[in-house]
Write a structure and sequence with these properties.
It is a single chain. Helix 5 packs antiparallel against helix 6. Helix content is 36%, strand content 24%. A 6-stranded mixed β-sheet has the order 6-7-8-9-12-13. It has a 5-stranded mixed β-sheet with strand order 1-2-3-4-5, covered by helices on one side. By secondary structure, the chain is an alpha+beta fold. The chain has a single domain, classed as Ribonuclease Z/Hydroxyacylglutathione hydrolase-like (Metallo-beta-lactamase, Chain A). The chain is globular, with a radius of gyration of 18 Å. The termini are far apart. Bound molecules: zinc ion. The site of zinc ion has 4 residues, from loops.
Length: 245
């Protein structure tokens, strides 16, 4: 069993504290203070800070967390280390997902065999979107997203930023007739009006409504007039048009 506490950090980052029986791991601490407050409330011991990539808004809290706790700091994408991270009661599968940055990884952890797994996607996959391609080609990002798309449909998706509303505004312009996209846009508007968190999503929801995962879908190709283009070409076209949106 584990719990996931969602913490809003910086302007629109999501930081996560995963706890099990008094042990905790923080994912992507953009800043330290809200993480320390959460740990004070639960009295859990912070074993490690794990970062999905090295960008400052995902690592900025590490220095202070190191000073105030005895945690380890891990940026697994920075080295070619193990594909599995064992930290106290937690076992994370590290999925290498370059594209947004060369060192981007996603972290998959399953609390028990009976429960759905949790996926921490950093800036690779967002609710209704994907990260900007700072260092790698569309092919690389498309391959990375395919690794996520094949995870069990009920896998919960915890991403690195709250971009859901703008992502579905974009998605609904691409595919005005897609009902799944329209439903998610309505949901995003309601969550934004309440000031609520927009995570977690699930792999099933993202596969049905995230335009970046749907680049291979004939309906998407038709909507863009790209019926004879490859999946990667469609993905690259969607990414370019989102960059200008
Ligand atoms: Zn980033």
């Amino acid at each position: 069993m584990h719990t996931v506490t969602i913490i809003g950090t910086l302007a629109d980052n999501y930081t996560y504290v995963i706890e099990s029986y008094g042990s905790a791991v923080v994912i992507d601490p953009g800043e330290a203070s809200p993480v320390m407050r959460s740990l004070d409330r639960s009295c859990a011991t912070l074993l490690a800070s794990v970062c999905t990539h090295g960008h400052f808004d995902h690592t900025g809290g590490n220095e202070e967390l190191l000073r105030r706790t005895s945690c380890q700091v891990l940026v697994p994408g920075a080295s070619d280390g193990d594909a599995t991270l064992n930290i106290g009661p937690f076992t994370f599968t590290v999925l290498r997902t370059p594209g947004h940055s060369a060192d981007s990884v996603c972290l998959y952890v399953r609390p028990t065999a009976e429960q759905p797994g949790d996926l921490f996607t950093g800036d690779t996959l967002f609710c209704g979107g994907c990260g900007r391609l700072f260092t790698r080609s569309p092919e690389t990002m498309w391959d990375s997203l395919q690794k996520l798309a094949v995870l069990p449909p009920d896998t919960r998706v915890f991403c690195g930023h709250d971009y859901m509303l703008e992502n579905y505004e974009f998605a609904s312009v691409l595919e005005p007739d897609n009902e799944e996209v329209y439903a998610r846009l309505q949901e995003a508007r309601a969550l934004a009006a309440d000031g609520s968190f927009t995570v977690p999503s699930t792999i099933a929801v993202e596969r049905a409504s995230n335009p970046f995962l749907r680049a291979g879908d004939p309906r998407m190709k038709r909507a863009l007039g790209m019926e004879s283009s490859s999946d990667v070409e469609v993905f690259a076209a969607i990414r370019r048009s989102k960059d200008r949106f």
